[in-house]
Amino acid sequence: MISRAALTGAVSAGIISADQADKLVSYLKLQAENIQAQQAAENLHDPEEVRFTRGFHDIFISLGILILFSGYIIGLNEPLSQGGMPAAAVAGAAAIISWAMAEWFTKIKKLALPSILLTGLFGGAIAMVGFSLFTSNPLNQNSETIQIMLGSIFALAGASLFYWRFKVPITLTVIVAGVMGLIVGALTLATDARILDYFPWVTLVCGLFAFACAMYFDSKDTARETLNTDKAFWLHLLAAPLIVHSILSRMYTAEQTEAYALVSIAVILAFGVVALIVDRRAMLVAALSYLGFALGYLLEPADFSELQLTAISLVLLGSFVLLLGSGWNAARRIVMRPLAGTKLTTYLPPIRN
Q1: CA neighbor of 282 nearest in space, from 331, 334, 244
Q2: What confidence tens digit (pLDDT) does each residue in 35-63 have?
Q3: Which UniProt keywords apply (predicted)?
Q4: Residues in contact with 39: Cβ distance below 8 Å, sequence separation at least 6, in sequence order
Q5: Contact at 8 Å (CB) between 246 and 203?
Q6: CA 225 to chain centre
Q7: What is the C-alpha separation between 188 and 179, in angstroms, rounded?
Q8: pLDDT in tens, 339-348
Q9: Which of 189, 166, 162 is nearest to 175 (CA)?
Q10: Between vectors from CA 273 to CA 269 and to CA 276, what angle results, nearest 5°?
C-alpha cells in the first residue's frame, strides 16, 4: 500500500490533487480489507467438506425414505418367510422404487442426503437380486461363493448404470466394492476356498486398492473444490476399515493383550501420519474403535470397575480426537516438513494456515 507521506509528496508536486489523494487512500484501504476477508474465508474453508445436506429439508426427505422402505420390508417379511414370494422379486421391486425416487430427488431436486441414501438402498437391493437368484445348497461348498459373485456382478452393473444416470459420488464406492467382491469370489472358486486361509491379506489388498482409487481422485483435485473430493471421501471410508482391520486382526494374539494394545496404538499412530499426509480425517474414523479397545486393555490391570474403565477409555479417546482435530493443520505442517520440495507434494493438498 502507498504510504501517506508519498501521497502528500505527490500532492505537493502537483501530480494529484488533495481530493484525489483522499479517494486513493480510501480505495486502497477497501482493497486491503477485501484481500484480508478473502484470506480469512480460505482459512475457514474445510478441505474435507462433504456435501451431505443443504438444510433440514434434505433430512426430512431422507427420514421419509427410511420410513417408506422400513414399511416395505416389514410388510413383505411374512410373505418372504413363508415362501409365498421370491426374495429376488422383492429386492427387484425395491431397486425399481429406489431408481424412480432418485429420478425425482436426485436428478431433478438434486438433494444430497436423499441421493446418498437412495444409492445405498439401490445398491443393496440390486445386489440382493443377484444373490437370491442362485439357491444355496449345503452339499455344494461353492454355492455361497457363487451367490456372493452374482450379488457382486449385479451390484457392479447396477451401480455403474446408477452412476451413469445420476453421478452420485458415493456410487463409485459401490462400484469398487462390487469389483472387489467379484475378484475375491473368483479367487475363492479358483483355489477351492484356500484363499480364505489368507483372508486378512486379501482384505488388505482390497483396502489398498480402494485407497489407491481414492488417491486418484484426490490427486485430480488437490484444492478440494470439485466432486472429485466427495468421490475420494467415500472411497477413503471404504479403504480405512479394510486396511486397519486386516493389519490388526493379523497380529491379534489373545494371550498377549497388553502387547497387542501397544502394537495397535503404534499401527493407529502410523495410520494417523498417513491421514495427515493425505489430509483425510475420514481415514482415522475406522481406527478409533481399535484405539478405544487398546486403551481399555492397557487400563485393565488398574483397579477400576468395568463402568469406570469404559468411561476413562472414552474420555481419553474423545480427548485424543479433540486435540488432533483442533491441531490438525499444525500437526500436518510437522509431518509434511520432510516431504517439502518433493514431487509427492504436487499430488497432495496444500498446507493451510
Answers
A1: 244
A2: 565 554 444 456 666 666 777 888 899 99
A3: Membrane, Transmembrane, Transmembrane helix
A4: none
A5: yes
A6: 16
A7: 14
A8: 888 888 888 8
A9: 162
A10: 130
Q: Count Cβ atoms below 10 Å from residue 144 Cβ, excluding itself.
A: 17
Q: Which amino acid is at 296?
A: G
Distance between CA atoms of residues 287 and 280, nearest Å: 13
Angstrom distances, CA of residue 99 to CA of 115, 172, 336: 10, 16, 44
- In this structure, what DSSP letter does residue 42 have? H
Helices (H), 47-198: 56-75, 77-81, 87-102, 112-133, 143-166, 171-190
Closest CA to 336 of 325, 326, 347, 345: 345
Q: Which long-range contacts (CB under 8 A, 24 or more apart) does 92-95 make?
A: 92/125, 92/126, 92/129, 94/69, 94/121, 94/125, 94/128, 95/122, 95/125, 95/126, 95/129, 95/158
The pLDDT tens digits of the residues spanning 100-119 come to 999 999 999 989 899 999 99
Domain ranges of the chain: 1-44, 53-190
Query: Residue 30, Cβ neighbours under 10 Å: how many?
Result: 10
Q: What b/e sequence results for 151-185 when a residue is b if at least 16 CB atoms lie within 10 Å of its CB, and e otherwise?
A: bbbbbbebbeebbeebebbbbbbbbbbbbbbbbbb
Taking the C-alpha atoms of residue 93 and residue 131, their distance in angstroms, rounded to an integer, is: 15
Asked whether 264 and 291 are in contact (CB, 8 A), the reply is yes
Say which DSSP state 33 is in.
H
Residues 6+ apart with CB under 8 A from 339: 277, 345, 348
Contact 324, 272 (CB under 8 A): yes
Dihedral sign computed on CA atoms, order 102, 108, 109, 113 = positive
* Residue among 96, 167, 106 at smallest CA distance from 126: 96
> How large is the angle between the packed helices 328-336 and 257-278, nearest 10 degrees?
90
Measured CA to CA, the distance from residue 35 to residue 53 in angstroms comes to 30
How far is residue 326's CA from residue 335's CA, in Å, rounded to a whole number?
Answer: 16
Measured from the Cβ of residue 243, the count of other Cβ atoms closer than 10 Å reads 24
**212, three cell numbers:** 489407491
